[in-house]
Specification:
The structure is a single chain. With about 120 residues, the protein is mostly beta strands. It is built from no helices and eleven strands. The model has no long low-confidence stretch (mean pLDDT about 95).
């Protein structure tokens, strides 16, 4: 059974940092690229980070470049998202995804709320 379980979200003050984790099981994690998305209330889901299966290729949209860092540990079947200098606009549910031509696998999401 495929599972992606995100954790690490919470309430944080503007300017703070968070490290999100996504633990994968039930598939060959090291063979998949991994992505982080976020969805704010009333907005479409947005891709915020992509990492190739071996970690050699990383892509960010301009909106988060310099503040978001994606990484992975294939020994632990886990992908991470470090978010620094958090802003209120970062408030969203963050999801990890293992993409595939059949649509891929999704986690249930973890809530990040940035507020003073």
């Amino acid at each position: 059974q495929v599972q992606l379980v995100e954790s690490g979200g919470g309430l944080v003050q503007p300017g703070g940092s968070l490290r999100l984790s996504c633990a994968a099981s039930g598939f060959t994690f090291s063979s998949y690229a991994m992505r982080w998305y976020r969805q704010a209330p009333g907005k479409e889901r947005e891709l915020v980070a992509h990492i190739s299966s071996d970690g050699s290729n990383i892509i960010y949209p301009d909106s988060v470049k310099g503040r978001f860092t994606i990484s992975r540990d294939n020994r632990k079947n886990t992908v991470y998202l470090q978010i620094n200098s958090l802003k209120s606009d970062d408030t969203a549910v963050y999801y990890c995804q293992a993409p595939s031509s059949q649509g891929g696998y999704w986690g249930q999401g973890t809530q990040v709320t940035v507020s003073s």
